[in-house]
Inverse folding.
C-alpha cells in the first residue's frame, strides 16, 4: 500500500471508531441528550448503502429547549460580557481543534456524505481558515461617530442579533457549519444549528470539539433532525432572532414565510446555475480543466458549480471534445481510494433525480457527449455527464440538477454571452475566460451574480463575500459584509 492509501485507511479507521461509539445525540445547553420524543434516524453511507449509526431526531420540543438554552447563554455574562479579545482566543482555539482533527473530520465527512477524502480534507482545511478569519473580526465589529455641531455627540454601536437559527444542507456540511458558527460567534450571538439529516455527523463532531474549548455552555447548540419538523420549528419560533439558511430556493421561500411569525431577520444562500463563459481567445486547456473540475467536484453537488458552459461558436466542437476527454479521466468510485475524483451522490433519491435529467436533455435534443452508463453495484454513483449543443432554454440548462451534469452552450459574441448567461432565475456565481482584459472586466460587470471569477472558477477565500443575486439568495456570507448580517446597529445622541 502507498503512504497515501495508508493515511486514508488510518483516517477512515479513526472516523469509524468515533462513529461506532454509539448513537449520536443533540447538543442543548452544553449537554448531549436524546430527543424529547426518544426518536432516532439512520445515517447511511452513500458509497455502500450501509448503516453508519443512528442519531437523535430533534423536533419542535427540542427546538423549544434549545431556544431557552441559547437565550440564557446569550444573556449570561460569561458570553455577553466576554471581551472581544477573549472571543478571538476562543475562535482561534476552535480553529486549532479542527486543525488537529483534519483527517478524522474529513473521513467522517467522506463516510457520511460520500465525497472523496481529498475533497473533504480541502473542506476541513477551509473550515480552519474560516475560524481564523472570523477570530480576527471579533475586535473589529466597529460602530461609528457621526459628525455634529459640537453640542452633541452622536455615535453608533454594532450589537449582536441574539439567538440565531442556522439551517444547512448536506453537500459540504463541515464548511457550512464552520461559516455559520464562526460568523455568528465572532459577533457575539448564540446559535442553534440544524444540519441536514442526510449528512449531520461532522456538525456533531465539530460541536464536540467546540465543547472542549472555553465556549460557555448553550452558546452552540446542535439539533440534527428533519427540515419539515425541526427546521420548520426553528424558522417559525418566536424566540429566534435570525435564521441563516443554506439550501434550495424552494425551501428558502418557505423559510421567509415562516420567519414572518416574529419578523426575524433572514439571510438565504440558495441554488445556482452558474454560467462559465469561454471566449475563443482564452487559455483553452486551463479553461477546460477547470470547467471539468467545477462541474464534477463533489459530484456536482455544489451550489456555485459551473453547470452552464458557454463556449464561443468557433471553438464549441473542439472544447466539447476536450471536455468529454478530461471528464472521462475523472474516476468514479470509493471515496477513500487515492485516484477517485467523484464519490457517490448523497442518496438514491438524488441519484434518480439526476438520472432523470439524462432523459430530459435528450428529449429536448441536446447531444450526449459523455456519461450515461448505469452504475452496477452498491452506492449512488453517477459518472460525469456532458451534453453539448445545448440551448439555454432547455430544462437541463435552466434547472439546478445538483449532480455531475454539464450543459455546453454555444454563443456568438460578448453581448450574446451576457444575454444568455443572465437568462436564468439564479445569480450565485459566474466566470469568464479570455486573454482580453477589457472584455473580462466588462463581462463580469454585466453578469448578474454575487461571486465571479476571471480565468479561474470556484476558488474561495474567507474574506471574499458569497451570496446571490436574484433567486439565489438574500444577504452575504464571508468577508466584511457578513458582519452586518449578524449584527444590528444602535445610534445614540448625547447632549453635551
Ligand atoms: P433543502 O432541501 O432546501 O434543505 C436544506 C436544509 O433545509 C436541510 O437541513 C433541510 O432538512 C432543511 N429543510 C427542509 N425543509 C425545511 C423546512 N420546511 N423548514 C426548514 N428547514 C427545512 O436543500 P438540500 O437538498 O439539502 O441541498 C441542496 C440545495 O442547497 C441546492 O439547491 C443547493 O444549491 C443549495 N445550496 C446552496 C448553497 C449556497 O451557499 N448558496 C450551498 C450549498 C447548497 P432535511 O434535509 O434534513 O430534511
Ligand atoms: Mg449520510
Amino acid at each position: 500500500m502507498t503512504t497515501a492509501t495508508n493515511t486514508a485507511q488510518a483516517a477512515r479507521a479513526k472516523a469509524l471508531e468515533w462513529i461506532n461509539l454509539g448513537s449520536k445525540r443533540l447538543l442543548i445547553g452544553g449537554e448531549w441528550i436524546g430527543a424529547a420524543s426518544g426518536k432516532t434516524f439512520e445515517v447511511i453511507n452513500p458509497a455502500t448503502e450501509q448503516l453508519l449509526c443512528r442519531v437523535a431526531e430533534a423536533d419542535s420540543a427540542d427546538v423549544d429547549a434549545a431556544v431557552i438554552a441559547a437565550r440564557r447563554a446569550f444573556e449570561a455574562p460569561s458570553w455577553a460580557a466576554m471581551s472581544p479579545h477573549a472571543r478571538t482566543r476562543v475562535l482561534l482555539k476552535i480553529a486549532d481543534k479542527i486543525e488537529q482533527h483534519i483527517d478524522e473530520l474529513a473521513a467522517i465527512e467522506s463516510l457520511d456524505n460520500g465525497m472523496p477524502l481529498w475533497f473533504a480534507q480541502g473542506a476541513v482545511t477551509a473550515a480552519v481558515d474560516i475560524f481564523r478569519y472570523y477570530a480576527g473580526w471579533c475586535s473589529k465589529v466597529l460602530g461609528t461617530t457621526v459628525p455634529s455641531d459640537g453640542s452633541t455627540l452622536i455615535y453608533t454601536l454594532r450589537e449582536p442579533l441574539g439567538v440565531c437559527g442556522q439551517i444547512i444542507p448536506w453537500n459540504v456540511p463541515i464548511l457550512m457549519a464552520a461559516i455559520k458558527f464562526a460568523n455568528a460567534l465572532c459577533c457575539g450571538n448564540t446559535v442553534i444549528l440544524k444540519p441536514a439529516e442526510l449528512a449531520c455527523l461532522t456538525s456533531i463532531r465539530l460541536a464536540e470539539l467546540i465543547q472542549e474549548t472555553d465556549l460557555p455552555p448553550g452558546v452552540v447548540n446542535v439539533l440534527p433532525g428533519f427540515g419539515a419538523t425541526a427546521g420548520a420549528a426553528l424558522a417559525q419560533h418566536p424566540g429566534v432572532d435570525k435564521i441563516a439558511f443554506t439550501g434550495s430556493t424552494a425551501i428558502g421561500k418557505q423559510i421567509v414565510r415562516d420567519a414572518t411569525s416574529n419578523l426575524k431577520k433572514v439571510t438565504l444562500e440558495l441554488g445556482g446555475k452558474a454560467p462559465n463563459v469561454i471566449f475563443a481567445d482564452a487559455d483553452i486547456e486551463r479553461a477546460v480543466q477547470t470547467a471539468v473540475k467545477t462541474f464534477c467536484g463533489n459530484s456536482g453537488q455544489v451550489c456555485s458549480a459551473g453547470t452552464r458552459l458557454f463556449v464561443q461558436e468557433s471553438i464549441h466542437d473542439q472544447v466539447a471534445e476536450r471536455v468529454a476527454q478530461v471528464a472521462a479521466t475523472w474516476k468514479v468510485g470509493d471515496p477513500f481510494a487515492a485516484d477517485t475524483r467523484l464519490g457517490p451522490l448523497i442518496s438514491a433519491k438524488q441519484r434518480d433525480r439526476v438520472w432523470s435529467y439524462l432523459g430530459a436533455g435528450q428529449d429536448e435534443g441536446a447531444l450526449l457527449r459523455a456519461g450515461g452508463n448505469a452504475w452496477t453495484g452498491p452506492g449512488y454513483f453517477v459518472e460525469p455527464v456532458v451534453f453539448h449543443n445545448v440551448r439555454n432554454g432547455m430544462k437541463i440548462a435552466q434547472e439546478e440538477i445538483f449532480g455531475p451534469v454539464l450543459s455546453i452552450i454555444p454563443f456568438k459574441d460578448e453581448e450574446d454571452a451576457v444575454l444568455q448567461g443572465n437568462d436564468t432565475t439564479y445569480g450565485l456565481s459566474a466566470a469568464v475566460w479570455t486573454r482580453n482584459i477589457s472584455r473580462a472586466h466588462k463581462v463580469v460587470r454585466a453578469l448578474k451574480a454575487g461571486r465571479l471569477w476571471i480565468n479561474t472558477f470556484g476558488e474561495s477565500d474567507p474574506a471574499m463575500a458569497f451570496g446571490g443575486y436574484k433567486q439565489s439568495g438574500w444577504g452575504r456570507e464571508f468577508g466584511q459584509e457578513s458582519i452586518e448580517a449578524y449584527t444590528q446597529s444602535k445610534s445614540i445622541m448625547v447632549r453635551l
